[in-house]
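Z., the sequence and structure:
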Amino acid sequence: MGAEKITNEQIAEIFKELGAILELKGENPFKARAYYNAARIIEKLPAPMEEMINSGEIARIKGIGEAVIKKSKVLIETGQLPYYEKLKSSIPPGLLEMLKIPGLGPRKVRKLWQELGITNIGELEYACDV
């Protein structure tokens, strides 16, 4: 039995997180937006990303650039994306969890992290109670 194929939804989720991590780190906002846009497009693709890459059809879709195609290929072939893993390990793990709180976007979470040293939901709750 082979490895499970990665779905468009899983690929999109990784690109969303890439965008969020880039924002949390204060990186180029256009790069972050490109990943968010790619994630939205991938979620709505009419066929699996792998099929669209193999047929070359993906290259004709506006908003999906060469970098996204290359990263998607790596994800599909290996189930992992070293760029994503490296970027994810460069921030405290609790920051991505904090983004799930309604009203807390990457800019606010970055500010909490940079200015107050808050790196997870527990620390945020404590800071709110103090």
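The two ends are 53 Å apart (CA to CA). Helices lie at 8-24, 29-43, 49-55, 66-78, 82-89, 94-98, 106-116, 121-129.

Let me know what you think.
H.
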